[in-house]
Design goal:
The complex is a heterodimer of chains A (425) and B (188).
Chain A lengths: L1 E7 L3 H13 L5 E4 L12 H6 L14 H4 L2 E4 L4 E5 L4 E4 L4 E9 L3 E3 L12 E3 L3 H10 L5 E5 L3 H12 L3 E6 L11 H14 L2 E4 L3 E6 L7 E6 L4 E3 L2 E4 L3 E3 L11 E2 L1 E2 L12 E3 L6 E3 L4 E3 L4 H15 L12 E6 L2 E7 L9 E8 L4 E8 L2 E8 L5 H9 L23 H8 L3
Parallel strand pairs in A: 1-2, 1-6, 2-3, 6-19, 8-15, 9-10, 9-15, 10-11
Antiparallel strand pairs in A: 4-5, 5-6, 7-16, 12-13, 13-14, 17-18, 20-21, 22-23, 23-26, 24-25, 25-26
Chain B lengths: L1 H14 L3 H24 L1 E4 L9 H9 L6 H7 L8 E5 L2 E5 L8 H5 L5 E3 L6 E3 L9 H5 L6 E3 L5 E3 L11 H4 L6 E4 L4
Antiparallel strand pairs in B: 1-8, 2-3, 4-5, 6-7
The chains are: A alpha/beta (425), B alpha+beta (188).
């Protein structure tokens, strides 16, 4: 079997690529290979699947007829064994081989599983894809207490979902605060207050060293032991430390890999006609002006669109993304973009305003008069206006004094820029 | 004008009883209707800041138009309303109204985690599906003009301009007392 375009992975990146390929090339054959049954669901929504009791149709990112509508041959439930760069084929585990003219590697990430004594016991879960969510949901009925290891985005979203199901939840975080990659101490403690107020216990600065068995059935999870010796009983442990790129189908001698797949601004890898995007590939970071791993859904989708355009013959460069997250867990809206914890004495200027009464916090990080990062807690209106100023590296000059106002918006910009934005098409 | 033509065509359908004519007339009616829609879809709302007096009537009428009854007083006093999809900003002597630009490269659509935001390929409208929205507010984070409004009454969704697709002229434009909002094909 030969196809003009072959895409490994049918999630955000793959879908983005298909949509942009079809904008340009209506007829070229496309094949998608995915190890999932229905790949087009929204990964960030698997916590809704748990907590809200959402059905599969409700967490679907694109409709079930998506593949058909875009004339895509979907190979679902199929695992890729190897990509053969010189023969331009993808070998599947079942022995089939699929030839390609252009290939996109959008395999995504897999959960990091820390080496913890007892991690093989029944009741230890990961939480990255729908299969994980289904396994976890199947087990939840008799669960009273859960320990979530890792207080990042996934951990906090899962804690909220488990709390909705009236489970007793404890988050164990190694660093000194939850959400440490996207928030500073002030922001994290505001979120932590809301999380704890809702009933989740947070333990920071600790790690789980052992997962203990249950008294009468050693194979089942019965509790955890922390590095300071504290023992806690629980029925399940969910490991949400983070994700790592799924690069096992790639031969690093043929495609350059630097922990993640190395790509250029056109999402092209070091091998001709092979592209990569999403959690498996590097993304250009417009704040730091370098390539890095940014495993975020919106960036994967846009990376996929860029890859697709280039695969279909256009020459489109990726303007770049950066660390950017919007979360609305436990009733406290938070937006975090770019550099949020600038190293001290490094030429960064920080503007910040904390209002404990209204539970709002606003922090803008500047470097050479350009915005390079921000944290908004509580009031998030017009966050995108600031992001656009960041992307276009607009000098803040006269509107600097207004940046900390919750009313800050287009109105504060100089007239030519303001008019351009108002008439944007 | 188009409305008049369609009425004449509909009358023709009724008074000319031959099958052939009926078929021809209805295809003309369809074509005209499509043309009317296409012209509407080319139009966008443009704010003229020199004309804006900051009265916020656009916001009031936007809320009314998107209410259950679509009656101004009843909507504001008796109904659960969603936030205005157009927002008036004021700073010193300047004021203007901002609403969704229905961008050709819509950041909100490209960033949506649930697939609730989409760009309609025919009309070019950026459409928000409340049913599929999870209120993560990623669209609020990326909208370059700040036109996606978090709906804090539900905390679950956003509200954004839909160009009042089911009426002739968007309610904010229609009710602006000083023509500070224009609905046209080219920027003023």
């Amino acid at each position: 079997m030969n196809f003009k375009y072959v895409i490994i992975g049918g999630s955000a990146g793959g879908i983005g690529a298909i949509e942009s390929i079809r904008d340009i090339d209506k007829a070229g054959s496309i094949a998608v290979i995915s190890d999932e049954t229905i790949p087009q669901y929204s990964k960030p929504m698997i916590s809704e699947y748990i907590g809200e009791g959402a059905k599969l149709e409700e967490i679907i990112f694109r409709p079930l007829r998506f593949w058909e509508e875009h004339s895509v041959n979907i190979f679902s439930d199929k695992k890729v064994a190897k990509v053969d760069v010189s023969a331009k084929t993808v070998m599947l585990e079942n022995g089939e081989s699929i030839g390609f003219e252009k290939l996109l590697i959008a395999t995504g990430g897999k959960p990091i599983i820390p080496k913890i004594d007892g991690a093989e016991r029944k009741g230890v879960f990961t939480f990255v894809n729908l299969a994980d969510a289904k396994l976890l949901l199947g087990r939840l009925q008799n669960v009273k207490e859960a320990v979530v290891v890792g207080g990042g985005l996934i951990g906090v979203s899962l804690a909220e979902a488990l709390l909705k199901l009236r489970k007793k939840v404890t988050i164990v975080e190694l660093k000194d605060r939850i959400l440490n990659l996207i928030l500073d101490m002030e922001g994290a403690s505001m979120v932590a207050d809301a999380v704890e107020h809702a009933g989740v216990k947070i333990i920071t600065g600790r790690s789980v060293t052992r997962i203990a068995g249950r008294i009468l059935s050693e194979k089942q999870v019965g509790g955890v032991v922390l590095d300071d010796g504290t023992k806690m009983s629980c029925d399940i442990v969910v490991l949400t430390i983070g994700v790592t790129p799924r690069i096992e189908v790639i031969d690093p001698r043929q495609i350059k890999v630097n922990r993640v797949v190395v790509v250029d601004r056109f999402m092209a890898t070091s091998a001709q006609d092979i592209y990569a995007c999403g959690d498996v590939a590097e993304t250009f970071d417009f704040v730091n002006n370098d390539f890095r791993l940014l495993p975020l859904w919106p960036l994967a989708y846009v990376g996929g669109r860029i890859a697709g355009s280039n695969m279909a013959g256009d020459k489109v460069g990726y303007p770049g993304g950066t660390q950017m997250c919007s979360l609305n867990y436990f009733g406290i809206p938070v937006i975090s973009i770019g550099v949020v914890n600038p190293p001290k004495e490094s030429g960064y200027e920080v503007l910040a305003k904390l209002n404990p009464e209204s539970r709002t916090y606003r922090k803008i990080i500047l470097q050479n008069d350009v915005i390079v990062g921000m944290i908004l807690v509580g009031g998030i209106v017009n966050a995108g206006v600031i992001l656009d100023l960041m992307k276009n590296r607009i000098p803040i000059g006269e509107f600097k004094e207004n940046l900390l106002s919750e009313e800050f918006g287009l109105i504060h910009l100089a007239e030519p820029l303001r008019l351009e934005m108002l008439r944007r098409n | 004008m188009y409305r008049k033509k369609s009425i004449i065509i509909i009358i023709m359908i009724y008074i000319v009883p031959t099958q052939l004519c009926t078929r021809k007339a209805s295809s003309i009616a369809l074509r005209i209707d499509k043309q009317r829609l296409e012209i509407r879809f080319l139009k966008k709302i443009y704010a003229v800041e020199d004309h804006c007096i900051g009265c916020r009537l656009c916001e009031v009428h936007c809320v009314t138009q998107h209410s259950k009854s679509r009656e101004l007083v009843r909507a504001h006093r008796k109904e659960v309303i969603t936030p205005s999809r157009v927002r008036v900003s004021e700073h010193g002597p300047i004021s203007f109204a901002v609403q969704c630009r229905h961008c050709s490269e819509p950041a909100c659509v490209y960033s949506c985690l649930s697939g609730a935001m989409s760009k309609d390929p025919i009309s070019g409208l950026v459409i928000h599906d409340r049913e599929r929205c999870i209120g993560c507010w990623t669209c609020v984070m990326v909208c370059p003009v700040g036109a996606v409004i978090p709906d804090i009454t539900t905390s679950k969704v956003v509200a954004k301009c839909d160009l009042c697709a089911d009426i002739e002229m968007p309610a904010c434009v229609q009710n602006c007392p000083n023509r500070a909002l224009l609905f046209q094909e080219v920027p003023p």
